[in-house]
Structures are given as structure tokens and as C-alpha cells.
Amino acid sequence: AMVVYDEVHCLPADTYSTLAHIDATYSMGLSASPYREDGRRTLIFALTGYPVFLDWATYFRYMPERRPHVQIKVISDISDKQYSIAETTWECDKRNERCIIFVEHLAYGEEVARRLSHTDCRPVPFVHSNSEDGYNVLRRAKLVVATRVADEGITSNFDVAVIAEACGDSRRQEIQRVGRIMSYGNRVLVV
């Protein structure tokens, strides 16, 4: 028997580590970001085996020709930031593109979704850890605001990704978000 652990960087956590004791002849761990902030990184490999990986140069050699265009706007005023986000969503709507807006904090995500819903005169879903049917919302919505739940283990076809808030102090989380952005296609806006 073989056990495959997706998002294996979670395995060393107290709540998940018991899964490593499943009786199996082989085990394999998958992760784009085998890093942990709590110092348990070595346990990832101790629980699943020797790491095999692609370096960035090899990854880019096999990556599709399409690479995202990244635009960074440094905006200090919150209303200017909100306008920039709204402007991007309007452009996406005109081009018939799907857009995801990444946020870090629940209150800010709720505010962004509420303002965009009011501006666009249609409900804009906000996907977070307690969202009902969040996976399907991410798969179907043309415009969606999402917390870090959309960073990890979910791949969906968005044309544009907007990073409205940084990932805080978590390097692993930032690597996850970069991975999602790399797979999301055409344009990335960081505000």
C-alpha cells in the first residue's frame, strides 16, 4: 500500500502527525512549500522520505509559455486602494475575465466584498475558512474575494489575481500564494 500526503508541510503539526503512522509500504509527500515557521521542517522529510524537487530554472523551462504580468502599486490611502481594486474588477468585467482578490484579514475581506457588491450591483462572494461550499464558489465565480484558503491546495482558472493584503510573517504562506499566482494566468496586481 502507498500513502500520498498532499500539502505535506501540514503533516508535522500535532493534529496531523498521527496520519504518518498509517501502515503503508510506501509514502510520498507533496508540497510546493516544504517550509514551517515552527522549526519542524525536518519532520516533513522524516515522516515521508527524502525530498525530490525541481529547482526554479527547471520549473520555468517546463512552465507554459504564458507568464503573468505583475504590476505593483504602492498606495497609502485606503480609498485609493479600494478604487484601484474596483477599477481592476471593472476591467476584468469588460474583458470577460475571472478575477480573484486575495486578502489576509476577515474584516478587510468582508469590507472589500461588500464594497464591490455595492459598486457592481451584484453580490461578490467572500471565501474564507468557514465559507459554505467555498471550493465550488472559487470554481464558478467570475469575481471573488478570498483569504489564504485559496492559497493552498486549490487550483482554479482565474485570469487576474489581485493581492490586496500581504501574507503577514509567514514565508510558507507567501510561497503558496506565489504558486497560485503563477498558475492563475495573465495578470497580477499588488496593491
Strand fraction equals 15-25%
Q: Give the number of DSSP strands.
A: 8
Q: Count of helical segments?
A: 6
**SSE succession:** EEHHEHEHEHEEHE
Shape: elongated
Helix content: 25-40%
> What is the SS-derived class?
alpha/beta
Largest sheet: 6 strands, parallel
Write structural notes for this entry:
Helix 5 (134-140) links the parallel strand 5 and strand 6. The chain has 6 helices and 8 strands, in the order ββααβαβαβαββαβ. The mean pLDDT is 81. The protein is α/β, with parallel strands linked by helices and 191 residues long. The protein is 36% helix and 17% strand.
Short description, anyone?
The protein is built from six helices and eight strands, in the order ββααβαβαβαββαβ. With 191 residues, the protein is of the alpha/beta class.
